[in-house]
Fold Myo-inositol 2-dehydrogenase.
Amino acid sequence: MKIGLLGCGRIGRVHARSVGQLDSVAIAAVADTSAASAQELAGETDAQVMSAAALIASPEVDAVLIGTPTNTHYDLIHAACKARKAIFCEKPIDMSADRIRDCVWAVEDAGVPFMTAFNRRFDPNFSQIQSRITRGEIGSVEIVTILSRDPAPPSLEYIATSGGLFRDMMIHDLDMARFLLGEEPTSVFAVGSSLVDPEIGNAGDIDTGAVTLTTATGKICQISNSRRATYGYDQRIEVHGSKDMLRAENVLENTVEMASASGFRKAPAQHFFWSATRPPTALGWRILPKPSQAVRNRLPISTMDYGLKC
Amino acid sequence: MKIGLLGCGRIGRVHARSVGQLDSVAIAAVADTSAASAQELAGETDAQVMSAAALIASPEVDAVLIGTPTNTHYDLIHAACKARKAIFCEKPIDMSADRIRDCVWAVEDAGVPFMTAFNRRFDPNFSQIQSRITRGEIGSVEIVTILSRDPAPPSLEYIATSGGLFRDMMIHDLDMARFLLGEEPTSVFAVGSSLVDPEIGNAGDIDTGAVTLTTATGKICQISNSRRATYGYDQRIEVHGSKDMLRAENVLENTVEMASASGFRKAPAQHFFWSATRPPTALGWRILPKPSQAVRNRLPISTMDYGLKC
Amino acid sequence: MKIGLLGCGRIGRVHARSVGQLDSVAIAAVADTSAASAQELAGETDAQVMSAAALIASPEVDAVLIGTPTNTHYDLIHAACKARKAIFCEKPIDMSADRIRDCVWAVEDAGVPFMTAFNRRFDPNFSQIQSRITRGEIGSVEIVTILSRDPAPPSLEYIATSGGLFRDMMIHDLDMARFLLGEEPTSVFAVGSSLVDPEIGNAGDIDTGAVTLTTATGKICQISNSRRATYGYDQRIEVHGSKDMLRAENVLENTVEMASASGFRKAPAQHFFWSATRPPTALGWRILPKPSQAVRNRLPISTMDYGLKC
Amino acid sequence: MKIGLLGCGRIGRVHARSVGQLDSVAIAAVADTSAASAQELAGETDAQVMSAAALIASPEVDAVLIGTPTNTHYDLIHAACKARKAIFCEKPIDMSADRIRDCVWAVEDAGVPFMTAFNRRFDPNFSQIQSRITRGEIGSVEIVTILSRDPAPPSLEYIATSGGLFRDMMIHDLDMARFLLGEEPTSVFAVGSSLVDPEIGNAGDIDTGAVTLTTATGKICQISNSRRATYGYDQRIEVHGSKDMLRAENVLENTVEMASASGFRKAPAQHFFWSATRPPTALGWRILPKPSQAVRNRLPISTMDYGLKC
């Protein structure tokens, strides 16, 4: 399968590297508003440089991978739908839930495969928790607890266009909640503070947040986020079921432990999700089939709605 | 110091055993509406059986330990205040926040030492977390996460008079939140479900609950409770600070680990807070000094207010 | 049962405290060459001070607990046998294997219960490993690994009369090996070094040692000892079986873990075997029945023989 | 750098895959007595098929990678020395210590780089232990403990030509001992049993073994091996130093933990050293410089001498 990569920035390069490790997929074309960035990534991937419009139209391209700024996603998705290309689009799809729904209808009408960048579902630890829940190992889900902290906040420039902590960071945890609860949330409560860096608060965003979700049958999910953790990229999930409990700890940098008068010390958590020592498949992606009517019915309670009340 | 023990039921006996392990304190008198219970515990502790009124009035008694049903606490506290005795009273002090405030004013006016049964502050793991926070080891507190599950729900008879999950069980976690946040909560959000046993729901209570607290400076605390955990008495706390993070895990029944084709298996958590293998000092208590004016000012936001909105 | 305690030094006091926590046993009499030590412990235990001979002869004494210096054990055991008292004797029983066998024959002829101070068999973790082996959980035992380190070496005065590392310290590990192997060792290999403190080497002892035992059916046990560990009292055992593996880790001082840029740090191991937070029953003891003929046949390969070849 | 690969069997294919992940190295030619095996691997690596002699002589080949049966290593090493090629040779180099020394002198005389397959030095956990020892973090090394178990024994055919447990399996642990002790062993004690499979004993080999090494300054190393572990590929190392202690645990298959009435269960250890989820660099290799005179002087105590006395 031939991929057209839209956006050759940081995340575009991450995807290009992931694609490069798969046998059956290749980057055929790249596009970026910066000719230099496009040229550089084209050189590394043996791809052609094109304009976005030409790339989407090209018969050489089976699927588009959208890694451009969020405010361009809407138009690119619609264009790709018209060109009947399979679509992978980075998160968040858009800042507006209404516009996201528009994208969903466009995808449905076009009947093209569509997937967004909820890579954490492919994390080997989290996906194992989900499959063990599905196999009934812990009975029915009652409480989901998600602790998620980034090593350090992004730049203030990034913060300004990120859509805020809920859309940019907690979006992954909200997706995990949907992945693990097995039911759509029916109520959302959110609080947030600026504790890590007052400049983030001055920019109108928060850097520390907490959400509680409940479902129609009374399942509860608590999520907390911080933009800063001194000890690495901290991603932990715990699911309390009617029979037993499952939890996933962080992968540490190594398994060495030192014993001294101050106790037993292990390594910090691996530093970020594209750490070289994480298996590259953790960042992999696959083309999902056309969304079913059932999915369409669920969509008015979009992931994007969460966090708007804080 | 001579103790008068009011109430010779389950919790009264636990306290009698704790007192028996201290050198400088002894049970001088016991009282219970069941003469047989009073007689039995008197025999074990070499104490006299008295009526509650006589016990409170007795010059042989320096302090009263109130372990009677909740609806008797109010009158016993007021009587002990009049008799100028030091008071230890089980939690919850009363079902009504107003009546609890009355008790506080009575204690203040009498100028007697008063303490309630927040034993978890004396748990060696949790008290260490608090003292390390106080020493500044993790900077300022940002997020407190408390996961608390009982091994099994109490009887429906107990549920009926317990005051509900928030007053009976989460009260300890709310106290931990105050202990660790270093600031009074200014907002409380609570949700609850009956997932463990529908009979608990039918009785008007919940068995699964979650609370979010925030403080004036933006600190956040998330608590979740379940009345059932197959793997023991589960009490974990984690504090994310501006510099570092501290967490306390459960004490397991032993340190043995078995390795087999299904992986590495450790023992369950110790089963309950009066487990024989926990150091008895974890249940110890001490007489606190007269509450200061500052404490009095804080009291309108009583621990008892929490959870009333669920 | 009434106990006569011979020896009121450090270990005698440890035993007195353990006896004090048992309901059915009491110290009736104490003896020590230091009248002051005897008087002090007698005061604490409500016991009479006697001479050793009078204590052993006393009809008030059912059993003697020998906690005197090693070179007095032989005579006291023989005297107690003549007086038909049950005997508990501290380790090592004697410095000479021949004299230990003499003691065993005396005990056998007298038909009195006898027990020596291998307290580690009553450690809740190690005893659980042994009982799970006995229940067949890991199949047949193949490799036993014992890592044992003291926090710090004893004084040079103690070293001078201790009998050396193998008789004084590793004796417990050799007993654990017999406890867990389920077969008598048939070969012993030992090496030792003085690495911790050259003065220990100058005194003719070692402070670092390693032993390999094998049994008739080919089971293997490796033991290593050091007189120094910065991180607490370190006692770990691992048993590799034909089906699965069991291991016991140290009990740490608490369960608190700190996460920082240098990683995840837990507390040191509890500092010594009479740590206040260890359950006192771990130091408990019980009177064993008269040794059977089978035991007598095994005795020529006494625990005391080990380590003599280093 | 262009590699000539001698031997296209299991281990040859593992090396070909490792080379394929390095940017600066490529397989230029392959040789195998099985034309089909050579052809298949040549196809996958875009390499030429050659005879061993032609490959060694080819100007297209800078270095040879010897993955053929052990009894061919001697001649291939000598041929490569004559052709002045850099050499990587699988372990064991030969069954005879004398013949290994011959190889070493040939390498020295030719002045070519030479390396053997002690891949565990490149394991991220073990290499970190060694570098932290070198940095002085734990003071001087006193006791090294190595526990090493394979998931299951190899086939009896393999056993027959393997050279036995010490040369085939424990050779890696003996290398780790040299890597970590920082001194050459001066005494070796070994025991072995056939406990896993009596057929291994009938074939003249052992499947369970233990070794004790000591050095001139009194450092001690204990190693134990089993050919079977139900819980994965088990490789643990612990180094007790004069200041502190370092240990490396196994990498587990994932970080998920399940809590149930039977306790807390984690995943088994990763199953084998070429597991897909281990970072490929763990199997990487590099060309070492010509051995110095100091190394030459150490060589009479060859790794190959170990274990010959069992």
About this structure: Chain A has ten helices and 14 strands. The radius of gyration of chain A is 20 Å.
